[in-house]
């Protein structure tokens, strides 16, 4: 059985720091990630000088965790936040630094929840595997909820492959009038922010865990979201630092998992579900994407990715199946063209409207 987060933290609590407390009680452990028998985490010191003196503690922490049953690889990285670090400026920021928009200061470690007071609920939209349509579902669901009168925000937290600017038809970058608050875009009735609006297009993002956390922190806490009934967060695929940071810091009300019906996607979807459950984030439901395909020429229905696998999984887990969406050329074209299909009329817009209704029926907002 894989090691659990709690087992690791209990072990790390044994490591007393020279100036009192331990790594856990002093809130220094960040981005704890367990993948099979591999464990990774970041030790965040209050400032670089302290970090430099902590290498022995980092080694001891690795040894303690490595001694746990079912752990064969451990990697602990030391990092620091503090006065001796300088915030990057946008003009000179290389691609391995978090964006700052001149908002001043390196992202600070936070203990208070990240969720701004004006946002009633944060709902994470995740998937185990990439390319299953999580971003397509997020943008269309956001638009469908907005069409039903909800105040909706959409945060594209897919740091490595932001697609919402294209799918939502963004034509300008995010701006900040006062150098502190980032102004989001307002598109198809939805308030939208994406890391893609802060980066040069085509520039690779090469960030370590703490940088990702800083960027996420900025995109939630420093964006002028206004009053929202719900902020949908389009997560990167998988179970990494962004998911962990969001669920641990942002007071997430629930998660929706998008999957295609075939076994390989479901296998990864189960891992995502397991992660949300470990982080005590309620699963609001599953969505089966690319569920069926109706040939536009002969009208025959087929199931290129299998059929019903997500429904069976939802049933097994006792969580609702929020919807099954077909593989549909117009959905793809609409996304590529910057106007989600849910913004128009027709069968697919109707399908997303029903999905939004079912989500509202969960009673969350
Ligand atoms: N139901 C659908 N019918 C047709 N095309 C779809 C459908 N859902 C998604 N697509 C297309 O599949 C591609 C991948 O979708 P999308 O980017 O939404 O997936 P993702 O899970 O967010 O991927 P990533 O992991 O890369 O972020 C896109 O070109 C999108 O237009």
UniProtKB/TrEMBL annotation:
<keyword id="KW-0547">Nucleotide-binding</keyword>
<feature type="binding site">
    <location>
        <begin position="128"/>
        <end position="135"/>
    </location>
    <ligand>
        <name>ATP</name>
    </ligand>
</feature>
<dbReference type="InterPro" id="IPR044304">
    <property type="entry name" value="NUBPL-like"/>
</dbReference>
<keyword id="KW-0067">ATP-binding</keyword>
<dbReference type="GO" id="GO:0051539">
    <property type="term" value="F:4 iron, 4 sulfur cluster binding"/>
</dbReference>
<keyword id="KW-0408">Iron</keyword>
<dbReference type="GO" id="GO:0016226">
    <property type="term" value="P:iron-sulfur cluster assembly"/>
</dbReference>
<dbReference type="GO" id="GO:0016887">
    <property type="term" value="F:ATP hydrolysis activity"/>
</dbReference>
<keyword id="KW-0411">Iron-sulfur</keyword>
<comment type="subunit">
    <text>Homodimer.</text>
</comment>
<comment type="similarity">
    <text>Belongs to the Mrp/NBP35 ATP-binding proteins family.</text>
</comment>
<dbReference type="GO" id="GO:0046872">
    <property type="term" value="F:metal ion binding"/>
</dbReference>
<feature type="compositionally biased region" description="Polar residues">
    <location>
        <begin position="86"/>
        <end position="95"/>
    </location>
</feature>
<keyword id="KW-0378">Hydrolase</keyword>
<dbReference type="InterPro" id="IPR002744">
    <property type="entry name" value="MIP18-like"/>
</dbReference>
<comment type="function">
    <text>Binds and transfers iron-sulfur (Fe-S) clusters to target apoproteins. Can hydrolyze ATP.</text>
</comment>
<dbReference type="InterPro" id="IPR027417">
    <property type="entry name" value="P-loop_NTPase"/>
</dbReference>
<protein>
    <recommendedName>
        <fullName>Iron-sulfur cluster carrier protein</fullName>
    </recommendedName>
</protein>
<dbReference type="InterPro" id="IPR019591">
    <property type="entry name" value="Mrp/NBP35_ATP-bd"/>
</dbReference>
<dbReference type="Pfam" id="PF01883">
    <property type="entry name" value="FeS_assembly_P"/>
</dbReference>
<feature type="domain" description="MIP18 family-like">
    <location>
        <begin position="5"/>
        <end position="75"/>
    </location>
</feature>
<dbReference type="Pfam" id="PF10609">
    <property type="entry name" value="ParA"/>
</dbReference>
<comment type="similarity">
    <text>In the N-terminal section; belongs to the MIP18 family.</text>
</comment>
<keyword id="KW-0479">Metal-binding</keyword>
<dbReference type="InterPro" id="IPR034904">
    <property type="entry name" value="FSCA_dom_sf"/>
</dbReference>
<dbReference type="InterPro" id="IPR033756">
    <property type="entry name" value="YlxH/NBP35"/>
</dbReference>
<dbReference type="GO" id="GO:0140663">
    <property type="term" value="F:ATP-dependent FeS chaperone activity"/>
</dbReference>
<dbReference type="InterPro" id="IPR000808">
    <property type="entry name" value="Mrp-like_CS"/>
</dbReference>
<dbReference type="GO" id="GO:0005524">
    <property type="term" value="F:ATP binding"/>
</dbReference>
<feature type="region of interest" description="Disordered">
    <location>
        <begin position="81"/>
        <end position="114"/>
    </location>
</feature>
